[in-house]
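Assemble and predict.
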Amino acid sequence: MCLLPLVVSTGTLRIFIFANFLAIFAMSWDILSGRTGYISFGHPFLIGIAGYTTAMLTYHLGWPLYTTIPIAVVATMIGGTLFFLPALRTRGTYFALVTLAFMEVMYHSMQVVQPKLTGGTRGLSGLPTLVSGAIPNYYLSFLVMFAIGVGLWLLIRTRLGIALDAIRMDEDAVRSSGLNTTRLKLFAFMVSAMVAGIGGALYIHYLGSIAPRGIFEINFLFTILVAALLGGAGSIVGPIIGAFFLTFLLELLRPYIPGAARYLIYGVIALVLYYYAPKGIYSFVELLRIRLTGLSQAKKND
Amino acid sequence: MGQIIIQGFLLSGLYALIAVGFTMIFSVGRVLNLAYGVYIMLGGYVYFVAVQMMSLPKVPSFLFAALAGVIFGLLTYQLLVKRLQSDPIAVEIATLILAVVMQAAIIVIFSPSPRSMWPLVPGVIYVYDVAVLKNILLATVVSWVVLGGLMVFVRKTHTGRAIRAVSMDPKGAVISGIDPQRINLITWGLSGALGAIAGVFFATYTQLDPGMWVFPLITAVAVVIVGGIGSIVGSLIAAHIIGFMETITTTLIAAELRGVFTMLLIIFVLVVAPKGLFGKAEL
């Protein structure tokens, strides 16, 4: 992967960059929703907070990136917590819709509230980029994705990670064993928000602009979710696999099918794949691995 | 002032219909149908096609739209939900993907831009000196009639009582000889019909737009959260609270902020009274 820029064109590299970012977002989603089972439809909301914070700070105040990005991440964590905390009171099912509501409302309010600050419907553009050019961006996005992947993987190995998994399986059981599920969920949430914030801030500076459409949008949400789900929710590698798979699927279809119809086909494929493999590609890979290497490996995985 | 009261009341009727159609599936099947908003969207678009593109008369078109909702609901259940039923999260996700797919389909068939629909009944009527669109009045009347019919259906007919039985206790219902699959099927079809009917009116109230399935879904959720699960009265009252609040917001503040107060209300209720007004259980 490190040698990639040497063998592919800039155009393909940009696809990879997008896939890297999608992987970051997918992992961020998965840490919360894939692991605890609380499906969040509000991730674009978090990404948007990060994006807008850093965009507004650099655009209006001209602060340097190494201050605005951390501020954006913190803002995401704080802002997200404020909104999500009450939402966590709803059990899994309604949580999804409440978070969806946040995103929708953000979409509308961002266009209307203080348009001078937020850029209104058109958003802000001409934002400074961290590094320029396809190759440096590729390395940056790849590094960040890798770092986040490793970081999350280490987290999952701790008892915290196991507890989070347990919540998905049976929250009441976890609660009755004495653990404070609310605090655990909150923790998962903050990690998720932090990763989303990092990804969001960096992504906006890669793109150089931000606007309500494209961020607070169902399609964006959909892409993140499907990436995580098809790849394999509840694992670290899953969302990464899913992100790449999805990005390349979209690119593959591009020359064959015009604009709008592409999303339709793509959605149908996603639906069919999900129907037959709700656990994602990764679980399929795991299954193969167990089959091929025999029982001993399976025992070791337990 | 009178304007707000009357408009608020009218809107609330429609919202009540939307909410009831949504919660039916949850009470009976214990799953969230995120594609519910699609019934609303379908209702609107089918009516549009029938009346404005094919020039069919209004009443048959209306029934046709309702039928489209029923069919879509049944298909969704048969093809998608039945297999994934054991995993509620999978159903949520699958229905969400379905909704997005339908949105894409609408974009392909029609176009991404919103369209205005002609009102079912043009013109204005004066109620207590307040100008009210006849169309919206019709929407509210129809909503209440349908809701009333639903209540009768659920209490007096055999099937209706079977639905209630399954929503109270699926296992007990099976022991009593009810077939839960059949009941689920009927419920999904019914939910589709309700959604489509609400959708025809909703589309005339706002606009036809491929993304229009999201907002009613959120409204339905808000009504359930505020009113409380398992309570019809709660849903009705909540629908009115939300309907009035929205009307006040759009009339006095700004039209775009329509959903903001609903969202704040959701948060408020979740923090202060998670069971909702009349809820029998926490969500």
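The CA atoms of residues 227 and 243 of chain A lie 5 Å apart.
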